[in-house]
Amino acid sequence: MIAGGDRVWELVERAAAQWPDDPMLVSRQGDRCSFAEFRDRAARMAAGLAALGVGEGTIVSWILPTWVDTVVLAAALSRLGAVQNPIVGISRDREVAFCVGESHSQLLITPETFGGFDFAEMGARIGESQPHLCHVVVGPGSFPNGDPLLLDDPAEPAPDTTTWICYTSGTTASPKGARHCDATVGAFSTAMGERMQVEHGDRYALVFPFPHIGGIGLLFLSLRTGCTHLLDDAVDPVATVRFLADNDCTHAGTGPAFFNMFLAAQQHQTEPLFPHLKTCPSGGTPTPATYHERIRDELGGVVVCSYGLTEAPVLSCGRVTDPAEQLQRTEGQPLPGVEIRVVGSDGSILATGVDGEICVRGPQVMLGYQDPALDVAAFDGDGFYRTGDLGHLDSNGCIVITGRLKDVIIRNGENISATEVEGFLHGIDGIVEAAVVGLADERTGETVCAFVVCAGEPLSLEAVRAALTNAGLRRHALPTRLEIRAALQRSPAGKVLKSDLLAGIT
Q1: What is the pTM of this model?
Q2: Does residue 4 come out as left (phi exceeding 0), alpha (psi in the -120 to 50 range) or beta?
Q3: Domain count of the chain?
Q4: 190 to each of 284, 286, 372, how far by Cα in Å?
Q5: What is the distance of C-alpha 180 from the center of its chain?
Q6: Pair (104, 47) in one structural domain
Q7: C or N terminus of the chain, fewer CB within 10 Å?
Q8: What region does 210 belong to: left with phi over 0, alpha with psi -120 to 50, or beta?
Q9: pLDDT of residue 172
Q10: Which segments in the chain show pLDDT lower than 50?
Q11: pLDDT in tens, 109-137
């Protein structure tokens, strides 16, 4: 384990010196590199970006698949001291334009096309409305490159300088930009790695979108532990699992959707799918107890849950050695340096076991929002961040999440704003009222259910989904269930009673 050092580039150089020939990144699509090759590729890419005018303080937005070159890009931009704004690939024009505009990005990097979507055309459209923005289209092997001998010395921004602007995936109608430095983004990697027993030579699955703040944190994990990350830019229930198995994956995550794939594959073979499996990390969505039991009994690993937010990644995490009941019921104990307060609606600190809002203070908490006006409501007078999540601390000091104050649906680890979807629904001809809630789903954690009141003939789910798609709502947020109602139950104050709506369905 490489100790000390918060900056990405400092860790890149140390890891390359300590494990030069060991594999760092291996992709199902065929690209791979050792720690030394990663350093060298990042230096060449930094030189190419510098030739485009990127330097210390340049704000660069990038929306890219989980390619080896994408991870290299993160290191290259760190080498130059740029401010990075990674955007998850499910985002479309409205979200990307908002992120690029609010962060004042000078450069947007996208693929040509990916997953059937034309990112190049989207970038061109956004560029037309934001003339200060330069748009660069890349693909595997076609990122900017240059002569690293022409580079200045590595940038060394102050420890509390913003180097990352990571947007939430929609906890409100518009995303919120969390400003981080390398120290806050990477703060959890050492302790989480120790709790999950990540060691040099382990093979850790990175088959979710790398632009997630969790993906960025895993870059720190590899650079500090010497583990190998196994990448896949397009998850396939057969090919992805086979790739992880062929590479002897030791840490196979990251939630119920992936666990279902692993368990299904194991049922079709007699030999262990992952013979040296240590953990199945889980985060971003609740993990039912049945998965803990099946992973243990059928795959021979341990599900270890963690809890965090874009604003404060991985605040708590279980340990491989924790009792099974504790692993199933909690999100583990807070990581070192993390302080937890559970407060009531009046701001009073609540006793152990009593539900309230989870408020946190610690080394991974963001520096603040890109829109500073949001900070006033986000932090209390003692600097604790108000997460908007409901829960409590148990007698062992573990975090138990029981609900959310924020009206958010978490599907496959992605936040979906109910308010946002409701706004789109209200724009559809024939819908006079709409309310959106999350329904528990064994595969995705939650799914989107829309309750609507129609002016005339009831609309079908297919028609509603088509209208929402045409209006620009991203596919991930489309309802998967539609409930037609004559009226929506409301409180005396006029607020839709979503709990009553849920109580009426099966």
Answers
A1: 0.86
A2: left
A3: 3
A4: 19, 23, 30
A5: 14
A6: yes
A7: C
A8: alpha
A9: 47
A10: 171-172, 492-493
A11: 999 999 999 999 999 999 999 988 999 99
